[in-house]
Specification:
Rossmann fold; elongated; 19 helices; 48% helix; 12 strands; 3-stranded antiparallel beta sheet; 4 domains; mainly alpha
């Protein structure tokens, strides 16, 4: 029986949920969910100076908005410091680690001298093979014993087989002289104790894998499957930074992108399934595999994101889309919808969501149902309501009042009135649109008439005429 898949996302709570971190979380989530496994969350909060509860909350909020649910309670790395120290002492007892009494001043003096002489600054502790009899009564760090020759092989599912010369590995510290564990130790202990089978993370951690394997082997633990994914670059091919635009996930929510489109887009950043661009969560979970991740950095492309957003908006469930739109309004601190606006928007959703590139565009298209009488036309709409147009609307209104309120019948009546004046349908539709929406750009006038219904449509036309 195969071991159940367990993946994890382990952010440091020092700021917002970065778009690159969000993609890493998504890849781990997809891999676990597609195999009936677990997706776990660990907050790497050992850096007490920079870790904040607010940042932890921002990360959890970002993951929740993105729709990435995790199994079990999030683990705090800081809370497990006692367990990390226990493992360091186990390695010490088994001879896989040793006490190092070198001070920071001694280590820095060595490195300065090495730099001046052009030598390697890799520190080799004189305490590695020292007899316990020579140990002073002083604070000590615990260092793991790295092999001195040969190679360490990292079998990476994305990068292939990576070889690291062991003479490039130092005897890394696993427990500092003040008794606090290092990040390198904590990560391994936590991954082992959490049962993590696959470590999917950024390729900036690739060299860390060789060093972390020292702990796995010293403890006789199974090494997880490694998959180090390339980072995300900006459209110019350079490392992602503020100059490229939004870096935090919450910024994308405030920009009005629906979560489903973000999941689809992030999944395609560096991973592919044939030529498929648009897909559902179910398809992504079924298709996602590490073998589909490329070795080259992915490039952020807002045009692709907009295109996917339009596709996802068109097929989204109306009520779910409205719920997410209200969350968008809250995130941008915009006024909440009234009960009447909410009901109207839900009726209009099939029309206004079509090919919308985000919630701002949905709201713009839905202006006609969100506004109330008397309609205040903008400058272009006011210009469309000249005396000639008003007289045509005046002629049209009584016919609409007695008509059966069906789209085809309404379209037929407007067409007849237009033809009677030797005009095309569009020439009458434009002042009609201006009267109903107060804009010259809106959904189809007949869609608006059906959504507004008879009384509201006639009321708006009468307002425009008078």
């Amino acid at each position: 029986m195969s071991t159940p898949v367990v993946t994890r996302f382990a952010p440091s709570p020092t700021g917002f949920l970065h778009i690159g971190g969000a993609r890493t979380a998504l890849f781990n989530w997809l891999y676990a969910r597609g195999r009936g496994g677990k997706f776990l969350l660990r907050i790497e909060d050992t850096d007490r100076a920079r870790s904040t509860p607010e940042a932890t909350e921002a990360i959890l909020t970002g993951l929740t908005w993105l729709g990435l649910d995790w199994d079990e309670e999030p683990v705090s790395q800081f809370d497990r410091a006692g367990r990390h120290a226990e493992v360091a002492h186990e390695m010490l007892a088994s001879g896989h680690a040793y006490k190092c009494f070198s001070t920071q001043d001694e280590i820095e003096a060595f490195r300065e001298s090495a730099r001046a002489e052009g030598r390697s600054t890799l520190y080799r502790s004189p305490w590695r093979d020292a007899s316990p009899d020579t140990h002073p009564d002083a604070p000590y760090a615990i260092r793991v014993k790295a092999p001195l020759d040969g190679e360490t092989l990292i079998d990476d599912q994305v990068q292939g087989q990576v070889r690291i010369r062991n003479d490039q590995l130092d005897d890394m510290i696993v427990l500092r002289s003040d008794g606090t564990p290092t990040y390198m130790l904590a990560v391994v202990v936590d991954d082992h104790d959490m049962g993590v089978t696959h470590v999917i993370r950024g390729d900036d951690h690739l060299n860390n894998a060789a060093r972390q394997m020292l702990v796995y082997r010293a403890m006789g633990w199974d090494v997880p499957v490694w998959a180090h994914i390339p980072l995300i670059h900006g459209p110019d091919g350079k490392k992602l930074s503020k100059r490229h635009g939004a870096l935090g996930v919450e910024e994308y929510q405030r920009m009005g992108y629906p979560a489903a489109a973000m999941r689809n887009y992030l999944a395609r950043l560096g991973w592919s399934h044939g030529n498929d661009e648009f897909f559902t969560d179910t398809q992504a979970q079924e298709w996602f595999d590490i073998s589909g991740i490329g070795k080259s950095p992915a490039r952020l492309d807002f045009k692709k994101l907009d295109h996917l957003t339009a596709q996802h908006s068109s097929v989204a469930d109306d009520a779910a889309l409205l719920h997410e739109l209200e969350a968008y309004l809250a995130a941008t601190e915009a006024p909440a919808l009234s009960a009447a606006q909410r009901d109207g928007l839900l009726r209009a959703m099939p029309v206004v969501k079509e090919k919308a590139k985000g919630f701002a565009q949905i709201l713009e298209k839905a202006h006609f149902i969100l506004t109330t009488r008397p309609i205040e036309p903008d400058e272009k709409a006011a210009a469309a309501l000249d005396n000639v147009s008003r007289s045509i609307l005046k002629e049209l209104t009584p016919r609409l009042r007695t008509a059966t309120w069906e789209r085809e019948i309404l379209e037929g009546i407007v067409t007849e009135v237009a033809q009677a004046h030797g005009l095309g349908l569009g020439k009458v539709a434009q002042p009609l649109r201006a009267a109903l929406a107060g804009r010259t750009s809106s959904p189809s006038v007949f869609d608006m008439m059906m959504i507004l219904d008879r009384d509201e449509t006639l009321g708006r036309l009468n307002d425009a005429i008078t």
